[in-house]
Amino acid sequence: MPRPPARALIAPALCAGALLTASACFPSPGKASSALPAAPSTGPRTPSAAQTLTEGQARAALITEKDLGEPWAPTEGFATWRDSMLKASAESPECGRLLDALYTEDLFGPDARTRATVGLDDTWDEAQLRYQIVAHRPEDVDATLAWLGSLPDECGQFTAAAGGGELDVEVTEAEMPEVGDARQGLRVVLRGISEYDDGPTLTLHVAAVRVGDDAVTVTNGGLADVPADATWTAVELGARRLAEVRKQGRHDV
């Protein structure tokens, strides 16, 4: 499967994405209605995913700015577009659930446990990438991946209400590298509706990969160029690194 072209232009920059001076760990602001229901499981419930990795092993499986190369650097905060464009609602429950998941950067719901996370900034184009390693039941991860895969049909085009006005939202499937045990990718474009056709456009890449009892999630978004090659590298390298760390963890037992 060919890799996407490096630094491909995905959406024009229609407004600046200033950064707030916030926590360097790239936190997600709170939202009372943003808690997602756990993905349904078709079989009997089992205890939460086994603690197969230590915290140190999970951190060792993270990607870094060195993996992505210039111009990526450790994040200096979260972008203002998170509140102005992602803190939104939709009439459809499924589309609303997607918006909540994008805002909170939590695809798998409250039963999943984040083991390690890193936030990175593209200092040229002001894109921001967040990479997480999450522990969850494999069957529930697969249910979430199936839900993500259904969204281009369920929510391919819809209107959302945000604090700054209405948004046109487009959801399409995104190509993914063949890594992990199961995977799903989306490309989400949110365009501000304006009388003069000059509203901002936010592009987000969303990816999730199951690796055994763990999962990798990647979100990469911005108001200017959102590098598809960075998303691809984060998914491909991160999933393989997690698989290797998991093997080492089992050998150490």
Write the layout of secondary structure elements.
Layout: H1 55-60, H2 65-68, E1 72-74, H3 81-86, E2 88-89, H4 93-104, E3 113-122, E4 128-135, H5 138-154, E5 157-162, E6 165-173, E7 182-192, E8 201-211, E9 214-222, H6 228-252
Antiparallel strand pairs: 1-3, 2-5, 3-4, 4-9, 5-6, 6-7, 7-8, 8-9
Structure description:
Helix content is 28%, strand content 27%. It is built from six helices and nine strands. It has a nine-stranded antiparallel beta sheet with strand order 1-3-4-9-8-7-6-5-2, sandwiched between helices. The chain is globular. The model is unreliable at 5-51 (pLDDT under 50).
Defining key terms:
single chain; 9-stranded antiparallel sheet; 6 helices; 27% strand; globular
Adjacency order of strands in the biggest sheet: 1-3-4-9-8-7-6-5-2
Low-confidence stretches: 5-51
Which sequence of SSEs, written as H and E, runs from N to C? HHEHEHEEHEEEEEH
- What is the number of helical segments per DSSP (H or I, 4+ residues)? 6
Helicity, in percent?
25-40%
Sheet of most strands = 9 strands, antiparallel
Strand composition percent:
25-35%
Rg calc: 17 Å
Distance between the termini: 36 Å
Number of DSSP strands?
9
Rounded average pLDDT: 81
Instruction: Sum up the overall morphology in one term.
Output: globular
The computed structural class is alpha+beta
